[in-house]
Amino acid sequence: MNEVLMKVQDLSKYFTIDTDWRGKPVSVLKAVDEVSFAINKGEAFGLVGESGCGKTTLGKILVNLYTPTSGKIFFEGKELSALNKKQRRSYCKDIQMIFQDPYASLNPRMTIGDIIAEPIIINKLLPMSEVEERVIFLLNCVGLARHQRNRFPHEFSGGQRQRVGIARALAVEPKLIVCDEPVSALDVSIQAQVLNLLDDLKEEFKLTYLFIAHGLGVVKHISDRVGVMYLGKLVEIAPKKELYANPLNPYTQALLSAIPVINSEKKERIILKGDVPSPINPPAGCRFSSRCFKEFGPCKLNTPKLKEVSPDHWVACHLF
Amino acid sequence: MLLEVKNLRTEFKLKRGTVRAVDDVSFTIDKGEILAIVGESGSGKSVTSLSLMGLIQKPGGVAGGEILFKSQDLTKLSQKELQQIRGNKISMIFQEPMTSLNPVWRIKDQIMENIMTHMKISKKEALARTVEMLDTVGIPSPAERANDYPHQMSGGMRQRVMTAMALSCEPDLLIADEPTTALDVTIQAQILELLYQMREKFNMAVLLITHDLGVVYEAADRVIVMYCGKIVEEADVKTLFEHPQHPYTVGLLQSIPQIDNESDEHLYMIKGMVPNPLHMPPGCSFSDRCDRCMERCTKEMPELQEINGHKVRCFLYDKAEEGELSAK
């Protein structure tokens, strides 16, 4: 079970915001900054964080939509940058993405049958005569009817569109699916339907998920292990039960306490002061130090590294 | 009683037919109370709040019913008379702090505009009040930040500015339409805390519109659940969350992934989706998605009945079977 499918080492992605007259960068946004983690085969790895913390950028690097500034990605033991063009193509096939906004991620001029068939045809996975059958199979897998393949995206509701997005990702038989906030644009009752579908598909197709979301309840439901991001850094990684029962990083503690829960016992809430600082000019030392309620001496001076505090529980904080 | 809404109906006349976005909705809000309206998109919760403010645009309009604010019927007032109340006695915070502030005006000018419209005070006094309000909602160095433009502020800050603007005339009723939906959880906690403090400070009533049941549980005193333009259940927060009765409310509560839930089992699902408002199912509008649908449900619409202060619109709780209700 604990076979590593994907390993990420010191991965960084910087965006240049402004350059001087020579083209030298003067202001740089560190969207993802020296992030390391591993995803095991068959697990769902959850990634939580607030907007602007770099979780989507990280997902996009993994599906090869962005080139990382530095750092290494290993997929099934092979390093990504060492691959030749052909191997890279097959890497792209193995890692698919489900996007956040089902209203914007489907081409409005294509029928959903064509949308699902396109990746099969481009990757030459099946002879043309068998493509249609495969599309119908995929539609059934995600709970849509075969006659719906000739319709256009605008004829579908948000939940149904998200199902089309899932079918499209499944079309090329990927090993890892990066789910970027797949349910945050959906209503509660539809959200449950899509989450259950993702759960079922994971069993059926032996998938591995990187599940990106800001809703901690959703992440807890679907993931096996969870990583918490803040301003481009991973601040805590732990199995979900451990993380939710025993959060160590003050940021994780505040994040968990901020979620409104339906529970008769009122819990003590940690209200953080201030806003998330700009990633262009983050605080020196620990990036959370400007809002942290346990901030002390070394926090403003040097950046804490991820340390394994108890088995499989990693924290980046000077308290540990 | 501060606000009483009686049989409110808001309709949109489209080419393909008439959509009744709010259908026969009645509720009351007392002074200092926080009433929450929950529902999914298309349930009519935002249209209800816009109707209260008289902000429904053509082709829509209030088609019937009364909105009694301090015993004055708002639906019968002219736009000019409404202007006296809007932003003054009733004010509103909108969902998108990014788009509901004017990008080319300074923060202070936007807040001062509201103050000067409703209060007879000099510009200098208005500015002082603006700074004071910004301070109240927790904006650091308010005197300097008042000169900022909206784009210089973060989402949480902008929502605070919106709140300052809404509170600047000390309203009796604040309508907050999804005030935290566009914000991150840590910022959401700050804004909810702020609403709470403001209620204590000004003793105002709040109509909180949201789809997040967690927020409702933490913030509200009483809850209305809406589905397809109708109220399906109404009760105080504790009763509703501990003993939900309408199958829709029960389903909604079970389908949320909770962080204090330890099981890995499948989430409960409400099957199907919200019906097209132009083609409502006959009978109860929830009947086609309901697990406990009976034959009668597909033929008639149940009435909203009140049993011990708990209102529910469902045949399962028909008055004739009142004994059964307490048994569940």
What can you see in these coordinates?
The complex is a heterodimer of chains A (320) and B (328). Chain A is an alpha/beta fold. Chain A has one domain (4-315): Rossmann fold. Helices cover 30% and strands 25% of the residues of chain A. Chain A has nine helices and twelve strands. Chain A has an eight-stranded mixed sheet, with helices on both faces. Chain A has a four-stranded antiparallel sheet with strand order 2-1-4-5. In chain A, a hairpin with a 2-residue loop joins strand 9 (225-230) and strand 10 (233-239). The mean pLDDT of chain A is 88. With 328 residues, chain B is α/β, with parallel strands linked by helices. Helices cover 32% and strands 23% of the residues of chain B. Chain B is built from eleven helices and twelve strands. Chain B has helices at residues 45-53, 79-85, 107-118, 123-136, 142-145, 155-167, 185-202, 213-219, 237-242, 247-255, 322-327, and strands spanning 3-14, 17-29, 34-38, 60-69, 72-73, 90-93, 173-177, 205-210, 222-227, 230-236, 305-307, 310-312. Chain B has an eight-stranded mixed sheet, sandwiched between helices. A four-stranded antiparallel sheet of chain B has the order 2-1-4-5. Chain B is globular, with a radius of gyration of 21 Å. The two termini of chain B are 32 Å apart. Mean pLDDT of chain B is 87; it is low at 323-328. The chains are: A alpha/beta (320), B alpha/beta (328).
CATH first level of chain A: which class?
Alpha Beta
Reported for the largest beta sheet of chain A, the result is: 8 strands, mixed
Structure annotation, total helices of chain B: 11
- Output the radius of gyration of chain A: 21 Å
Amount of helix of chain A: 25-40%
Main beta sheet of chain B: strand number and arrangement?
8 strands, mixed
Biggest interface in this structure? A-B, 42 and 45 residues
Strand order of the largest sheet of chain B: 6-7-8-3-9-10-12-11
How many separate structural domains of chain A?
1
Enumerate the spans of chain A where pLDDT stays under 50 for 5 or more consecutive residues. Answer: none
- CATH superfamily annotation of chain A: P-loop containing nucleotide triphosphate hydrolases
Q: What's the CATH topology label of chain A? A: Rossmann fold
Helix segment tally of chain A: 9
Mean pLDDT of chain A: 88
- Structural class category of chain B: alpha/beta
Radius of gyration of chain B, in Å, reads 21 Å
User: What is the molecular shape of chain B?
Assistant: globular
Helix content of chain B: 25-40%
